[in-house]
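Much of the work behind modern protein science is quiet bookkeeping, done one molecule at a time. The protein below has been through that process, and both of its lines are reproduced in full.


***
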Amino acid sequence: MALNPVIAAITQRIIERSRPTREAYLAQMEAASLAQPGRAKLSCANWAHAFAASPAADKVRALDPNAPNLGIVSAYNDMLSAHQPLEEYPALIKEAAREAGATAQFAGGVPAMCDGVTQGRPGMELSLFSRDVIAMATAVALTHDAFDAAMYLGVCDKIVPGLVIGALAFSHLPAVFVPAGPMTSGLPNSEKARIRALYAEGKVGRDELLAAESASYHGPGTCTFYGTANTNQMLMELMGLHLPGSAFVHPNTPLRSALVKEAARRVAAVTHKGNEWIPVGRVIDEKAVVNGVVGLMATGGSTNLALHIVAMARAAGIILTLEDLDDISKAVPLLAKVYPNGSADVNHFQAAGGMAFVVRELLKAGMAHEDVLTIAGPGLSNYHQEPYLHGDELKWREGPETSLDEAILRPVENPFSKEGGLKLLAGNLGRGVIKISAVKPEHHVITAPAAVFQEQEDFIAAFKRGELDRDVVVVVRFQGPSANGMPELHNLSPSISVLLDRGHKVALVTDGRMSGASGKTPAAIHVTPEAAKGGPLAYVQDGDVITMNADTGELFIHVDEAELLARTPAPVPASKPGFGRELFGWMRHGVGAADAGASVLFA
């Protein structure tokens, strides 16, 4: 199928816009690749240090100049359910590397925090910045320059984007990302949401809420809703950094273990020492980035990726804008309905056809670039295959050609919507994004008086006092990256959902983030310029009438501009001490804007 002309035009403008920075990036990659493998540059003492603690057989193998050495960078910890299975991976990888005539070493760990634990807590103010910390920690792990390729073990929200940014700093090294997979299905997400809403109204207690949450999050693997963690896994497939079909295979299964070992064998085969060099700097190009955005829109993925994919692209010298995301969303149909966009979870999505079906449909419709380089070799068509075990042997076969459940997954001829999951909002309040794939059409447009809050706790208190039982646009400001690190405001969702269920017209406008699990609430998020930088949100007062129109992409306040700017802006709240927040002051001061990825690395 010929490439869709809109996708072709957007790709071309990204290529033209990025030409200077991309050429500089590729020149750096070529220079690094010509400098010979790490061991050729290291002195005997350096190399002896690198393998001093290795088993004797690995020390002997390390003396072979043709034996690749794989670096392992892992986000393992046993608090994150999605990362707990990674504990076993290094042993599997080392075993597979030896079988392939290579060595593998644990190069370093990166921090990995769980937004599910820190929601509504002070630690959430470190969450977004942890992405850039992870990127820098990845660079520290690989900076020994003793590796011919690298394997990246991580799954969740900021971890995968941070690992990608770090990997792209070592553009000449082949890279493969190795996930853990989703946990088995627990309490249905719709039932969990119902109990959260009852708790917000005070109709059930903490014991009932904890029982529901524990039945939802109950074992190893990613949370089963289609939030940021699972959107990351979709993205790694569409951008060619996973082995095909590896995103949604359960942890602690024979198939998952086989995929881990095969990832090691595959990346060992595509180093500079062989005939099939596949450096990560070539895998992540303009077409791969566009494929990732197309997948984001077609599956109704997490709003957090509107930040992360911009930052990841910039790490490869590619300049991606919110207008690019918006135009792709207008061209790409919505093919998936997975909670919070529907009632199904990612296990149901996988059973209905999963990524193999999505990739096939996107290629069939000309919505994605087939002519890309992936860790599996040339061509995105590698990714409409799915893995299986034939006895103990790992093999691939073609995935389903038709959806096995059109309530969850549909073909391009019969999508859930003709447009994708995210849209750009712009007007005299700034620029932001809205996730519309889970928002009912009757909630796409709202005009109502504003209720303005500086803290999410103040909103929750006002809700409990009954002050918001009306049509209202809730403005929560000073939540941007410069103000307090741009925490997720998912704790607002149950209360706003209650107001919607009571029949009110309600929306949220904020310079902060919502969770990747944000659902039916119409929310203009990531609003830029943020209030702390003098953006219009700093001038909004209670009672100002605001319109959010997700159909036309408008966000504006019904106050004359001169009158608005004549007001005294609300003062920027002082930074709060404790919970490590003092250590991140330099990041708050130096971070870039949300529409540029909210990064300190590319500010």
